[in-house]
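Reopening this ticket.

The earlier resolution said the output was attached, but the attachment link was broken on my side. Pasting everything inline this time so it's all in one place.
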Amino acid sequence: MPGRVRPWRGRWCFRRGGRVVGKEPPVSRVVHFEIHASEPDALIDFYTAVFGWTFTRFGDMDYWSISTADADGDDGVGINGGLTRREGSPPGPSAPVNGANIVVAVDDVDATFSLAIDQGASSAAVPEDLAGVGRVANIRDPDGNLLGLITPDLSAMSGA
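Inline output:
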């Protein structure tokens, strides 16, 4: 985690590994997510198959960094995250959400929903249109983590 250092010309700077990176403050933006896994290799296979994410083991720890960039390495407007070994039991099928819900933008909610089910996910909410938002669905990954899918209604976002 970078440490904040003194402002430079009115902007905050951050130190990572002894060097200064960035000159903008973290203005309450979500910058990282973590997925907890009872069987990390199984979830790595799932998220790679469904979303094409890439995973890199972080040292000797039971932790993998997740790159959500597309095949060309374009991060777009998304964020990257991590996958860590779960400490405890996975959530049950009807357990309430205990944490944050990640929502992934996809080109086709229906196709991604079907692929996720084929890869071992279960349905939490079937695909449906949500006026002014887009097409949405929810799944539980093979370890029971709740995950949202959305194909945004871009015309609603642009005010068209």
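Reporter confirms the inline version is readable. Residues 1-14 have pLDDT under 50 and may be disordered. The first strand starts at residue 3 and ends at 8.
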